[in-house]
Queue: 2 jobs
Job 1
Amino acid sequence: MARVWVLALCVSTVIADTTTTIPDYFQTSFGPYAGGYETGRVPFLAQTNPALSAQPTYVPNGPLVTDIPVPDKPEGASIFSHMGNLSPYRPNADGFGVDEYALPYGSNITQIHMVHRHGSRYPTSKPGVVDRINGFIENGTVFTGNLSFLNSWTYQLGENELTVRGRQELFDSGILHYYNYGQLYNPGSNLIARTTTMVRMLQSAESFLYGFFGSKWTQNVTLEAIIDSTGFNNSMGGDQMCTNAGNGRGQTSGSATDQWKSIYLQDATLRFQNQSSGRSANWTVDDLNDVQSLCAYETSAFGYSPFCLLFTWDEWLGFEYTLDIQFYGNNGFASPVGRAIGLGFVEELIARLIQHLPDPPDDSIAFNTTLDDNNSTFPLNQTIYFDFSHDTEIFSMMTALGLSKFGKYLSPTELATNRSLVVSNITPFGGYFLFEVIKAPYPVLDQRPRNSSDSPYDTSGNSTSYVHMIMNQRTIPLGESIPDCGARDDGWCELQTFINFQQQNVDKANYNASCFGDYSTPGYGNITDGAIPNS
Ligand SMILES: *[C@@H]1O[C@H](CO)[C@@H](O)[C@H](O)[C@H]1NC(C)=O
Ligand SMILES: *[C@@H]1O[C@H](CO)[C@@H](O)[C@H](O)[C@H]1NC(C)=O
Ligand SMILES: *[C@@H]1O[C@H](CO)[C@@H](O)[C@H](O)[C@H]1NC(C)=O
Ligand SMILES: *[C@@H]1O[C@H](CO)[C@@H](O)[C@H](O)[C@H]1NC(C)=O
Ligand SMILES: *[C@@H]1O[C@H](CO)[C@@H](O)[C@H](O)[C@H]1NC(C)=O
Ligand SMILES: *[C@@H]1O[C@H](CO)[C@@H](O)[C@H](O)[C@H]1NC(C)=O
Ligand SMILES: *[C@@H]1O[C@H](CO)[C@@H](O)[C@H](O)[C@H]1NC(C)=O
Ligand SMILES: *[C@@H]1O[C@H](CO)[C@@H](O)[C@H](O)[C@H]1NC(C)=O
Ligand SMILES: *[C@@H]1O[C@H](CO)[C@@H](O)[C@H](O)[C@H]1NC(C)=O
Ligand SMILES: *[C@@H]1O[C@H](CO)[C@@H](O)[C@H](O)[C@H]1NC(C)=O
Ligand SMILES: *[C@@H]1O[C@H](CO)[C@@H](O)[C@H](O)[C@H]1NC(C)=O
Ligand SMILES: *[C@@H]1O[C@H](CO)[C@@H](O)[C@H](O)[C@H]1NC(C)=O
């Protein structure tokens, strides 16, 4: 019986493949641009959990062992909040420097525009340290002390796919956003949500939509998959169409991250060398930085990783800062392609806000015109826009949006303690930003009244619309980056002011020169506005 059933399944698959009339962008099976992907070892945490803390943590639906007792860790803190783009999802506990307010009575949220990162995944390639460790062992190194487990360790991670935790992050986010915005969806309508063709991108969008709409989500949404591969135009994967992003010319962080790693990992390197006996192992700072990433990856894949015990609290803060420098120099205001990579989303956001198909100047087209010139693939009549993308791309979207709050110089020799640019808070796995469009009956006061019985409105004015930007559940103060928005204590910006500013951002990306110009990689810190300067 089982055999017959399998056969029938194969036949129907073949028929579906040969007779399909669905255009490529609405096909969400893994196709030719899915990229490589591989599943790793299946977890068995009940058997591998080391029960590190005296009191077990019976936390609902929190499978990962994250209460790692690293030396010098402040009470209540967690290294998993400091792993940059490898952090499992959690909101910024401190917020972004502005208070959160309830929507004033009488105002309505009329639209949301979201860009969501994929969830926790396996590495995109095997970290270099894996072959180094095997080489040390082949050369006769015997590991001692905290490193002893390495004598029998093997690499068992997969590649590129979501881990189960990643699926959970997106599913939970879909549920969170259904609670927050469910009524914006008109049950009779069909939405277009957009992701890319890569496996983790499809898996993430599907988990989110399942969380938001339930298991029959395909009745409510059509998922569009934009080709995510070198040379293709893709607003959710802007590096693929920007030559100087793909070839590395626009990435300025290398010398700076090397410098910083040699500082924050100096002690740890000596410690590792000291715990490698027999024939000594020549651990480098790059090896150790990779080892830190293995803690993040193994925990997400298996629930627990012994690599997490090998570093002090300050070394984790150092790891986090390395990633901040990297994003700043490769996708932020210190990169000549920082704005260009994210420009397509800005052009699309303007189009959606003014309900007019995107039409930037010919030398600044940062999306696929086949898709965006067509209202069946780029509709303008939605109240909910769900897009899915990658960490570096989302960071570049923030740059293209002109969020200069996250654009201040980061020293490669000294950890900048009060910085806003903390990748852990911006693009953790399963992170997102979204814009709420809010229609208020009158202008909302710049400073909300202290007394909750006082009106938050200037009732002498007219109905006014605003945008409220949220990143990982916390408000971004738009006025800190866009002076015309004003120093509002709710972080909002008047809608037309915001649109005007975004329209100016299209030129600031200097798209053609930045992406296709023939220049040598600028020194770290020489670029300050995310683009090759307009001459
Ligand atoms: C192993 O030893 C060889 C010969 O000394 C050396 O060239 C190689 O770099 C060593 N491998 C590692 C990973 O250190
Ligand atoms: C999804 O669409 C179905 C069919 O139109 C509808 O019955 C259902 O209510 C919709 N789901 C939500 C969450 O609105
Ligand atoms: C937008 O318009 C199309 C075509 O009329 C319709 O199928 C779709 O449901 C509409 N979307 C929304 C969100 O109303
Ligand atoms: C634009 O998207 C369409 C539909 O997926 C695809 O066939 C085409 O190759 C894309 N064009 C570019 C330049 O990426
Ligand atoms: C190396 O190990 C020895 C013996 O365990 C210890 O006394 C010494 O402090 C260690 N040195 C470093 C740099 O960790
Ligand atoms: C250790 O590795 C570094 C970087 O690969 C290299 O520069 C150095 O010469 C090596 N030292 C020894 C003792 O092999
Ligand atoms: C390594 O092991 C020693 C001895 O068990 C311990 O005191 C130390 O804190 C451990 N961790 C690190 C990061 O060295
Ligand atoms: C792809 O992007 C390039 C660079 O902006 C643009 O010249 C071209 O018209 C775009 N093609 C499509 C099909 O989007
Ligand atoms: C797309 O545009 C056509 C022509 O302007 C219009 O008839 C149709 O209703 C639109 N569909 C959507 C999905 O908005
Ligand atoms: C908010 O929505 C309610 C209910 O649809 C409506 O009566 C009210 O006029 C709306 N307010 C604004 C400012 O548009
Ligand atoms: C309110 O709108 C009316 C009509 O558009 C306009 O004449 C008036 O100046 C506006 N008032 C304010 C305070 O902007
Ligand atoms: C960085 O800027 C300085 C001063 O403008 C210039 O002298 C230097 O050549 C630049 N370095 C690089 C690598 O662009």
Note: The first helix runs from residue 2 to 19.
Job 2
Amino acid sequence: MQESLRASTVTSGPLGDHGESVLPPAGSIAGLDYVQALTAVALDTLREVSLNRPGPVTPGGPAAVREAAGRALAGPLLPADPGYPMDTFRRFVRDYATWSVDVSHPSAVARMQCPPTPVAAAAELVMGILNQSLHAWESGPYALELERYVIRELGELVGYGPDAGGTISAGGSISNLMAVLAARDRVLYERFGRNPFAEGLTGLGKRPVVLATDATHFSIGRAVGLVGLGTDMIVRVPSDDLGRLFPEQLEQTLATLPEDTVPVAVIACVGSTDQGWVDDVAALAEVTRRHGVWLHADAAYGGGALFSPRLRPRVAGIEQADSVTLDLHKFGWTAATSGIFLVRDASVMEPLAQQTTTLNADDDAEAGFIGLYGSSVQATRRAEAFKIAVTMNALGRDGMAAMVDGCHDLACYAADRVEAEPKLELAARPSLSTVLLRYHGADDPDAFNGELRRRLMTEGKVLMARTRVRRPDGSSPVFLKLMLLNPATTTAELDRVVDDILTTAADLDRSAQPNR
Ligand SMILES: *Cc1c(COP(=O)(O)O)cnc(C)c1O
């Protein structure tokens, strides 16, 4: 196949021998042959790289990657003589794969980056070839139906009724932005009859504020800035040591807000980014309803619990939030991005739809030619619904539950192991799939644990994240974070992760304090 590509019309012009300079479209018959050949090369190369790499990342750390990239990317982006596309492709795949983190490796436990299923990954190829978009009927007629299906089904999974709506978004940050926008517009309309989307925020007489906690994801702060409320207008509600927001504290904060402010949104964490703690959404909703404030449930990570009958009770009450963020690229095994934004009342998204002129002709809409430009902040939008729908259909209810439960079980196993190790300290029992630990014994434990993490990454052994955990005494020491999102990991492999942490820590401890 590779030889035929060299000689046939599919490699052409500066790319081949035929004086043509364009490649065929991927979706044409010639293009599909081409993609098939490229895919075979890609998979062979990925297999080869994977077999040769001992850990979750090629050793060497930032200096080695920088050097490799400096060598591989020394030429211009647009070379005068590019050679055969197949050769270029193979070279790029090899370099990219060699220096990528292997999210399917059992020791890749750093980020909320699940290993996508084979179905999801292959679906991405189909999406790339078909290149559909959701903004107009003629950009992706079936993609539109898939999106409606996914939003309807996920709305039902959350527990929303028939008025619910939403959109697939470019991730949790965008979903959170849409939530803050919806909250601002709905609450300021209800309180003052104002339409901030059209009129802006001047002349309100009151300063709109958003209530959050220290555990709230940083994307909320950005969203508050972006929608013009100003990040200074975020009011931090006191939370407990685990970052959980309780109705009493919320009530108290709302009751004591300055006279010249108006609360528009409360952000609940359904699975906090660091520890996976879940706020009691039903109890918070009772408070926000009384105060006429929008309640947003940020379930970007914790939404995974919805798929597990065992963990579902932990997110009970989520349907009482006015809006919900889910990220299926975190705890849902589709490739990034698979962001979901859901609202209980779809009409709140109408201002977005009114801001287009070229896309919305009444006669087209009456005839059913309706795009989904009006439910999103994007225009061109990938048909992520395809990979989400096919992945969920392939796994089924029990499959998804088993994947989520598998990760939770792994987290509990790792926590047991950490608790049993005298040199390690566990922050708390896992709530979902996160384990926070730290090594103690060193003189400066914060610096030590930071260095330990970097050493493990540089040696290509373990990829972990880090955070700080607030303590009752007011301190917030550095902890290392294991994020277990690969249900194929065995307990033996997980033991090896902890062993690697311990061995490297002991080495580091010895070299830092030779006299011990
Ligand atoms: C990851 C995360 C986000 C941001 O989502 P992205 O898809 O990375 O933009 C928002 N909120 C929480 C709680 C998260 O864990």
Note: The pocket of pyridoxal-5'-phosphate is lined by residues 112, 171-173, 176, 217, 219, 273, 298, 300-301, 327, 339 (CB under 6 Å).
